[in-house]
Amino acid sequence: MRTAMFSKSMLLLALPVAMALLAGAVLPFQAAGNAAAGRALGHWLWGAFTSLTVSMLVVIAALLIIRVPAPDMGKALQGPWWLWIGGVLGAMYVAGAAALTPKLGAAGFLVLVVAGQIITAVLADHYGVMGLGGKPLSLARVAGVVLILCGVLLVQGTWATASPAHPTAAVKAQEN
What we know:
By secondary structure, this protein is an all-alpha fold. The protein has helices spanning 2-41, 44-66, 73-77, 85-127, 139-156, 167-175.
C-alpha cells in the first residue's frame, strides 16, 4: 500500500516536470518552423501568422474533442486588464522567434529568451505582480540570474558564431 502511494505521489510530482521539459524541448523546433514558414512565405510576419493560425485551430479542435464547457465571459470581463495580455505577448514571442531565429540560431534565440524570462520572473516574484505571491529578491536569486547571463555569453558570444554550426551552412554562405 505504501509503495502504491509513493509511486502515485512521485508521478504527481514527476508529470508536471516532464510536461514542462517537453514544452521547453519543442521550442527550438517551433522557432525554427516559424522561421522556415516566414522564409517560405516571404516575410517573418507570415511565419508568425501561420504559427498562430495553426495554434488556434489545434486549440479549437482540443476544446471540441475534450468537450470543454463554454467560458464565463462575464466573469472574465470583470477580471483585471492583464487577463487579456497573454495573446498579445504570445504573438510577440512567435513573431520574435520567426524573425530572430534565422539571425541568432535556435540556441542563441532560446538562451536569450530564457534569460529574459528568468530576469522578468525574478522581478515579477519580488514585486508580486499579476496576482503572484511576493518572493523577495535574495543574493542567491541574483547569483542565479548572473549565472544565466554568463550562460548567454557562453552560448551566444562571438566565439560561438566563429564557424558554421553545420557543414552545409558553409556551402550556403559561399553561394550567397
